[in-house]
Design goal:
The chain has 402 residues and is an alpha/beta fold. It has helices at residues 36-50, 78-85, 128-135, 154-158, 169-183, 202-208, 219-228, 243-255, 297-307, 329-343, 354-363, 377-383, 389-395, and strands spanning 16-20, 27-28, 31-32, 54-58, 89-92, 111-114, 140-143, 165-167, 189-193, 214-217, 259-261, 265-269, 278-282, 291-295, 312-316, 348-352, 371-373. The strands form 4 sheets. Strands 5-6-4-1-7-8 form a 6-stranded parallel β-sheet. The protein is elongated, with a radius of gyration of 23 Å.
Length: 402
């Protein structure tokens, strides 16, 4: 949070404020299927409008590849945004490729939604001329889209170098939660990292073993670590070519005083299908024709006990194939154990990632976590310890002070 400027630092009376949102919402039959991302934007746009600004909202939608595509228009989002904001929203269907200087519009308290920024190829290329076109829409820039801030695009990074730039309320809340979980956490701090392939989360593991006190690894990722330790894993998903890397991570954890916890018992089946015949076995007794699809009850109990000794917990990824019954029981049990500790104020819990949200939703524990991030790639890059260009530029003294 150091150096981050927020709406608290801003007087917007009579100003036009360009707000970068993430309105890349799921659609079904031409209607919004999940309005979570629109709801996240509402506190920022209503606060700005209520305090005297005219608000210009920018967002991408889909992958139109730098040209207008009807199915990627933001027009269908005008009405839901208007309903949630409780005030009229004007939609501007602009030809971003037009070289004509775009008008400055909007009166105090008004909200304007602009067409998809990705209709111009300069958006993803972070083209300076397109960044200038976006900056000409207002006096101040507010980024309220953490989920796209790992991308150095014109509407996230380029515009912020041309206008006085600030974090919106959603961005501020996200960064505060992440800072409390990893930037400046209360210790001991633990992390639950799961998923199918260790190759997709190597950078996360290598960052966390240096910063966490406890690292619980599950899912297919754990199979590779178990295999590296000489365990029989049958026909389970595994990346044997990464055993050397897995052993390196285990060594790094020891060097940095991070305890890595792997399953001691697992749920196995001979096929990956709903209701498949399954049994729980020790990791020392996995049948050669079986697949590991979940962690077992002994592992759940041991990890839940370790949770009780933590003060901060990060969570990314499921412990098993939670989408297929009954192989989500381990994930669900651990999620609820963390949720109970959160509700008694013994543990701060921060979770993120697409599969993680789905698993926590299925467990019924999602509302009891301290903070759940809807950001996908940005959350993962943050876990890797990487700087996010759309965030870092807000810390810089971009543009002029207001």
């Amino acid at each position: 949070m150091a150096g981050l400027r927020t709406l608290d630092d801003l007087d917007v009376v009579g100003k036009r404020v360009v707000v970068r949102a993430d309105l890349n919402v799921p659609m079904k039959g031409g209607a919004v299927a999940d309005d979570t991302r629109i709801r996240c934007l509402i506190p920022t746009v209503t606060e700005l409008a209520d305090t005297g600004a005219s608000v210009v909202v920018l967002s991408h939608f889909g992958r139109p590849d730098g040209k207008p595509v009807a199915e990627c228009s933001l027009a269908p989002l005008r009405a839901p945004l208007e309903a949630l904001a409780g005030r009229p929203v004007q939609f501007i269907s602009t030809d971003w490729a037009d070289s004509v200087h775009l008008p400055r519009f909007g009166r105090s308290g008004e909200i304007v939604l602009m067409e998809n920024t990705r209709f111009h190829r300069g958006e993803e290329a972070n083209d300076p001329s397109f960044s200038r076109k976006l900056a000409d829409l207002g006096d101040i820039f507010v980024n309220d889209a953490f989920s796209v801030s790992h991308r150095a695009h014109a509407s996230t990074e380029g515009i912020a170098r041309l206008l006085p730039s600030y974090a919106g309320r959603s961005m501020e809340a996200e960064l505060a939660a992440l800072d409390s979980a990893l930037g400046n956490p209360v210790r001991p701090i633990g992390a639950v990292i799961g998923g199918a392939k260790i190759s997709t989360k190597l950078a996360i593991l290598e960052n966390l073993v240096k910063r966490a006190d406890l690292l619980v690894v599950g899912g297919g990722m754990a199979n590779t670590l178990l295999h590296a330790r000489g365990k029989e894993i049958g026909r389970s998903i595994c990346e044997p070519q990464l055993c050397d890397v897995a052993e390196r991570i285990l060594r790094q954890a020891k060097e940095h005083g991070c305890t890595i916890v792997l399953p001691t018992d697992v749920v196995v089946a001979d096929r990956f299908a709903p209701g498949a015949t399954h049994l729980t076995v020790s990791v020392d007794n996995v049948p050669g024709n079986a697949m590991i699809l979940d962690i077992g009850p002994d592992t759940v109990a041991a990890v839940a006990e370790k949770f009780s000794k933590l003060r901060t917990l990060l969570w990314n990824g499921p412990m098993g194939a939670f989408e297929i019954e009954p192989f989500g029981e381990g994930t669900f049990a651990l999620a609820n154990a963390a949720a109970r500790l959160t509700q008694t104020k013994e543990l701060l819990t921060v979770a993120g990632g697409g599969d993680t949200l789905a698993a926590l939703n299925a467990s019924g524990a999602i509302d009891d976590f301290s903070y759940v991030s809807a950001a996908g790639g940005a959350f993962l890059e943050w876990l890797e310890g990487r700087e996010l260009p759309g965030v870092e530029v807000l810390r810089a003294k971009s543009g002029m002070e207001v």
